[in-house]
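User: I'm putting together a teaching handout on how multi-component assemblies are represented. Below are the sequence lines for each component of a complex, exactly as they appear in our records. Could you produce the 3D structure of the whole assembly as structure tokens, so the students can see both representations side by side? Please keep the chain order the same as the input.
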Amino acid sequence: MKQHGSTFKGRHFFTIPYVVWMAIFVVAPLILVVVYAFTSKSGQLTLDNFTRMGSFWAVFTRSILLALIATIICLLVGYPLACALAREGPRLQRIFLMLIMLPMWMNFLLRTYAWMTILENTGLINSILSLLGLPNISIINTQGAVVLGMIYNYLPFMVLPIYSVLVKIDSSVIEAAQDLGANSYQVFLKIILPLSLPGVLSGITMVFVPSVSTFVISRLLGGGKNMLLGDLIEMQFLGSAYNPHLGSAISLIMMIIIVVCMMVMNRFGEGEEQAVIL
Amino acid sequence: MNFKRLVFAVLLSLALTFTLAGCQGGGKEVVHIYNWGEYIDESIFKEFEAQTGIKVVYQTYESNEVLYAKLKGGGANYDVIFPSDYMASRMISEGMLEKLNFDNMPNISKIDETYLNQAYDPDNEYTVPYMWGTVGIIYNPNMIEDEITSWGALFDEKYSGQILMFDNSRDAMGIALLYLGYSINTTDKAQLDEAYELLKSQSPLLQAYVMDQIFEKLEGGEAAIGPYYAGDYIVMLENNPDLLFCLPEEGSNVFIDCMCIPKGAKNKENAEAFINFMCETDIAIRNSIATGYSTPSKEAYEALPEEIKNNPIIYPGKDVLERCETFTNLPQDILDYYDTLWINLKS
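Assistant: Of course. Below is the structure of the complete assembly, with chains in the same order as your input.
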């Protein structure tokens, strides 16, 4: 019992599996991406892959724009929801958390397929509208449908981090503010919002990053008409040309854009805890 | 409890499980099959195992390009693969296939010679034809009153919002080239540009670019018209018997999918046994009926039920096939150009 992992050396021992895992599945692939990005098919060092990036400008801006819209809507919907949730009794909290997590127990692809049949012109929504004698809406195969797919799939990633920060706020802090004469508006702005910022920042990261790199959602709900970054990268591997070098270069640029976005956001929340960089 | 001893016990039991599992697999002959999804009658595996004692490990892919990327990436461990004509030719030219030992495959004599020694494998050293078929227009007569005879229907404003299109550059460009009267294997960039302009003008009329989603969208009446493979049309009929098929007057793409053995396959002889088994007449019939595609086996074709044999969609006449062209492998710069045009199309 004496040597039970209490020494520093012992603790070190337990981190080995994780370090090995990270080295094999995170660090090594990253190095490969960098190597591929800066080499040509013949294996020579080159910057060609990056000079071609200009022609993908439209794809980059569209992906970032759609992901931003999805992230903002997730925040606008998710924050009030997380607030409301954090104030409920523990039983209701458990039930609601369960409801938020429930869709995630199903396969992501399956959920997106389901949305396809819901939104289609002859789909569920339009069938109900026709039954009620209302005019049909046509949303499938538009950018709106892509954004909707992103919001649906990633909303839990916004709600959960904000919620987990909010429930940890000591209620005596809020009471103190109220005792000192702050109205509920001031309490929210001066106490709750700043304290919940780390959760908001991780929420934004966790919604924005998968949104900007998704490709299944745009294919199934966007009708394949709006190529996003994920589609572009996939095409370099599974398109006719097979160019993993260009694919790696695009991935690298995308990673840089995401890291820069995160750094800007972390500055924004300076003085608070840092957002999680995935 | 002593911690080290616990770790040791856990590791030992893990090691034992793995070795035992390893023994189970190692004692038996296996063959690793990598095929298109929904492209075989899976019940034949049991018979193959009973006949030869070789266990089938079966995996599927969705496009020639996925197959290519998988093999090119290394680490793949397949014994039999099913590339289409142009991909087989690309793999042969890049030394990715093994030469076949036809002494192990006597059933090759059952294959109709029309399908041997094709342009993609002139001396027929690397490939055994598995299925063939054509690409055509599938449409719903309840939504489209006219009789469709031309690729032009896919570019017709009348059907705006109801048209589906191939979501891969080779097939989509191929249709545009056919409509313009060019070869689907052209390497003339001016012709490719013209085809691209046509696709660009088509884009606003389209409901979506699709691959296998076309099944659900055409069967359910979500879309009215779209190009796809004749064999898949036969399968769609089961869910929507109203659908019609047209092999356009401008001609079309006829494809042959082959069975091949990738370079360095670990179970080459088992693979050859499997390919030979696939060429057996009753197996070829069952595969052909299950998939809806056309068999290159002479004997299997003769033994098919009359209604399939005489179905001009599954087995079009010689006059129709003369208007059709197979895809060949394109040079790398043209493949790159295809990708560039495709990205521009969707930007």
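A couple of points students might notice: Chain A has one domain: 56-268. Residues 274-278 of chain A have pLDDT under 50 and may be disordered.
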